[in-house]
Amino acid sequence: MATRNAYDVVMIGAGHNGLVASFYLARAGLSVLILEAGEQVGGACITEELFPGYLHESCAQSFYALQPEILRDTRLVERGLRGRTGGVGTHLYLDGRSLTLTGDESNDFDQIAQFSVHDAGNYAQWHDFVERASRLLQPYIMKPPVSLARIFADYQGTSDEALLSRLVTTSMGQLMGDFFESDEILAAMWNPADLGSLWETGSGFGFALSRAVSRREIRGVTKPGGTIVGGIGQVTRLLAEAAEEEGVEILTASPVSKILVESGGAAGVELVDGDRIAARTVVSSADPKRTFLNLLTGSDLEAGFLRRVRNLRAKYGCLKFLCTLSELPVFYATEHLDTEWIAGGGIRVRPSTRYRDLAWEDVWAGRLPRAPMLAIAHPSISDPSRAPAGKHTGSWYIEFAPHRLAEGTWDERREEMADRLLDIIDQYSPNYRSAIIDYKLVTPLDLERDRLLSDGNIHHIDVIPSQMLDQRPLPELSQYRAPIKDLYLCGAGMHPWGEVNGAPGHNAANQILRDLNQPKLRLG
Amino acid sequence: MAATKTWDVIIIGAGHNGLVASFYLAQAGLSVLVLEAGRKIGGACITEEVFPGYLHETCASSFYAFQPEVLRDTRLMERGLTLTTGGVGGHIYPDGRRLFLNGEEANDFEQLAQFSVKDAHNYQDWLAHELRISRLLAPYVMRPPVSLSDVFADYRGTSEEALLSRMVTATIGDVMGEFFESEEIITALWNPIELGSMWENGSGLGFALARAVTHREVEGLTRPVGGIVGGIGEVTRLIAQAAEEHGASIRTESPVSRILVEADKAAGVQLANGDQIAARIVVSNADPKRTFLKLLDESDLEPRFLRRVRGLRALYGSMKFICTLSEIPVFYAAEGLEPESVGGVRIRPTYEYRELVWDAIRRGRLPDAPMAAVGHPTVSDPSRAPAGKHTGQWFIEFAPFHLEQGTWEERREEMGEILLNMIDVYSPNYRSAIIDYKVITPWDLEVEKRLTDGNIHHIDVVPGLMLDQRPLPDLSQYRAPIRDLYLCGAGMHPWGEVTGAPGHNAAHQILRDLDRPGR
Question: CA B500, CA A25: separation in Å to the nearest integer?
């Protein structure tokens, strides 16, 4: 058994949050070692060559939430991060209609008026409402979480007081009902992906939080938009570069088997190969369940605490369908429009609120989704480097899917699910199926095994009001500190939430530095 | 058209809240006329002879939420309101187990331990926690609603601050999951009807509000809970008596067709027979949708306001099954107990069962797994049936108002059959003991009790429709957007059930607006 030199910090996992935290810790002068189980860095924020000659984003694919301070501090754009926009998003409906919103007022009015003139008239007000809602929680994103009571206190007596009450108590369905009446518009305007929703219609509070994260801006920082050239793995590759420049060491193919605890404090880690590495501080970017139930031994923790960790809600998983395409797909509903423009912007299939309800019912019942909500991207349109000349890639993000099936396993039922997805796309496109050269369906079980995400949950745990702010993941864990001294968490299961935003990594690093009482090294 | 005197106040509807409001307003010296559409007063709080010789509670049947101040002021106990005693009850399961809690520690431990010893150990802690939760919103029940923000401000810096955050953000499943692991116990201790629940697990805030109303204690006052001798209609009969003692007039069979508006203010009402009656103030005990969409002209209100009223969520209706019985039913799960000692049983055995009910609501299907609270009031109140006979009353939570196929009229018997098949699982003799029965559907509640959408709480009790958002922020202070028009029913803060609080709070708001403090 080899024992290396002790590090100030050992970081478990080179996902985006682990890398962000490491960057800040190293910049403050600490020696940091990152241990990554996989062959490359990236975790759930990764580009892979699943089919020779093609690049796919096999887990996260959207770069919209990375916090501007992190973009600035790690100098990602200067390091070469590029985004390209290739079209505009379109919602497809079975009756051949489509909804294509471009941000141009008169276009958007006409598009919505196909479904309801009333709704078209209210769209601008909805926009204002979203903007107001998104600002409420913005001051709370890039710091350790405060309580809801604290936020109420901050807004008391202001014009946003009633809005806060409303968002905290009301479902998205009710909120949107104030603006829209068309079922198609209601289904389109609510993006279930950013809401960790309750059944029914999502929580207004979750909506406010996700919008706060995704819309935060700071002066002087412009986020690359659209498709990331080379795939989202470029983000983690460049974060790793920035971290290494600050002196961080990164070891890939080095799975941690155990966090070592000595006299009540974290003392280092043990690798699967038996190597032990000592550290003053251990930080886990793994999810809370994996951290406490797999990487620690039960005797290190109280039974009541372990029970609470086991009960953390992680109800809904997702699917990804990755394919290579011999030609660009066309869609019945947009035949009159430019194929590249449509396919390049992202296709959404969630045609009705009933469809959405079915997706939820199947999550609860553990059934293969009958009504999977699809967000389909064709990144090779704006980034041709991802496929051989003339060929394309398709990347479908599918919500929602149960983690465990009531009958059979995801491995047994993978092809059945893929067939179901192809049957659905046949209803919307005459050539999608025939254009597919190869495909792979990534199931929640795959996400659990390949990405080490407990329950196959890309947000580590559900983003519901009771698992937000200082209740995320549990009140006693919310300040990024574990109940074992010198052990911290910095992943998506921590405030504010998942998606590629980097805030948990940033906030955890900040907390660690405060605890180390290194005021000179404190972050700017 | 007869023009008569001008009343200070006309109240539309002689349900419990209309009567409570009329009592306080008359007590303060105002001339009050209550107009009731039905042949009897009571509204949804009524006892009726549906089958000759038998008394049934055809809508509300539980007297557990009535506020102690209203009980004191109307002197209901002195007027003869008598609570029944005898008959225990609880939850029964298809496998023959039962969970009969009676508040006696050793019994309750033993009962719970059948399902989980760990849960049995946690039960006393849960009760203490539940009491703590119940105290959070108790100070806000008997007054016009404040905002959630104000509630947070009141608790700032106190030990209850974190509990409040928790209840606002968590589902009741989350909260109970910290104490219990047994599905049977969680389903039993969480009564969905009190919670205007969302799918899944109901809202913590709804739970806190329901518990505030039902557990509220006022020093020196009693809060009786139980069956009422003669049926729950006695409550409204005696409140009416109290109101009349203070000079209120009550007219039955006087359906109001329209609220009269003159110069942007309420001026009286028009009855279905064309009579107009003038009043300085009009108070509607009807639900918000009925008040604004049926009793007022569209031209009296703004289109956007009307749209918001139309959009008020009322997703779940209720149902009742009432029957007459030739003998007392026995239950497989109550083996070893005297049939006459079993007051009522509840059937909601599993999560799956509960979710099936919600599925049915969302789809507009007949609930094939109905959650039922099955009561036999004659066990403790023999006056309700001829000697040797019994009454059965099942409250079915919940049922869709709109059916996807057919109407409730067409499918009433089919629903009756579903319910009888359900009871066959639990009782060997229930079906054969039934002499007569009637299914009271959500449609019947709308038609006969004038409850829009068949919703006994007027509108759902979900967090977005609580406190100063009930029923809408601009209506929450009991004032309509038309001057001198008020609302006082279950659709107002704090919520439905027979609490009397909306009626009390509305009356006091009116008296304050008149600058006339109540007694």
Answer: 61
